[in-house]
Design goal:
209 residues, alpha/beta, Rossmann fold, 9-stranded mixed beta sheet, globular, binds 1-O-pyrophosphono-5-O-phosphono-alpha-D-ribofuranose, binds uracil, binds magnesium ion
């Protein structure tokens, strides 16, 4: 699939396996989500444009590449996406941060919006939307719809774990969006949870269950 990138780095796979373990506690879970966001961000940002700038070293003046052009906005989907924000700002400290608040209805699995605020204007920024989980795809599609309605044009989405169902749906609805996935899991269960997955990412990051 064009614009879909499934990570194969051993460090990402190793850390995801620790996340899956139900014995992994909140503190370790939170640290791992952030570390995985750094590693995935490193991959996802490998096409950032560079321009040569003049720098005076202690030896001589030279032209040397630095990031140019597009400024970055990190947009976590609340709550669980918050766990990935520091990973991206570790790489790009100047990034602005937007928020998209969505929760999934436990019965219909449809996303419900409760808070949204994006950097304004956003049309010239590269937007990195982050959420650990892509299940049915309903939340991610709603989040990308919102970003596009507010002028976002250049969008990358990062998920630690995705279900095939959600990945297919998101890609079909938003084929222009680049999708980065830490691990593609087997399927959704009857409650629309990812199998084998890691459970409810928000509850595990914030210790709410
Ligand atoms: O692809 P979908 O079927 O829409 O499911 C994925 C969404 O579900 C989770 O959030 P949740 O609704 O549990 O909210 P939370 O982060 O506040 O726990 C997850 O973090 C995604 O946002
Ligand atoms: O498996 C899942 C599905 C949706 N949201 C989660 O946090 N986990
Ligand atoms: Mg949740």
């Amino acid at each position: 699939m064009d614009n879909v990138f499934i990570m194969d780095h051993p460090l990402i796979q190793h850390k995801i396996s620790i996340l899956r373990n139900k014995e992994t506690g909140t503190n370790e879970f939170r640290k791992l989500i952030e570390e995985i966001a750094v590693l995935m961000g490193f991959e996802a940002l490998r096409d950032l444009p560079l321009e040569d700038v003049e720098v005076e070293t202690p030896i001589e003046t030279c032209k040397t590449p630095m990031i140019s052009g597009k400024k970055l906005a990190v947009v976590p989907v609340l709550r669980a996406g918050l766990g990935m924000v520091n990973g991206i700002t570790t790489l790009v400290p100047s990034a602005k941060i937007g928020h998209i608040g969505l929760y999934r209805d436990p019965v219909t699995h449809e996303p419900h919006e409760y808070y949204c605020k994006l950097p304004d204007p956003i049309d010239q920024r590269l937007i990195v939307m982050v959420d650990p989980m892509l299940a049915t795809g309903g939340s991610a599609i709603a989040a990308v719809n919102f970003i596009k309605e507010h002028g976002g044009k250049s969008i990358k989405c990062m998920f630690v774990i995705a279900a095939p169902e959600g990945l297919k749906r998101l890609h079909e609805v938003h084929p222009d969006v680049q999708i980065y996935v830490g691990h593609l899991d087997r399927e959704l269960n009857e409650r629309a949870y990812i199998c084998p997955g890691l459970g409810d990412a928000g509850d595990r990051i914030f210790g709410t269950k």
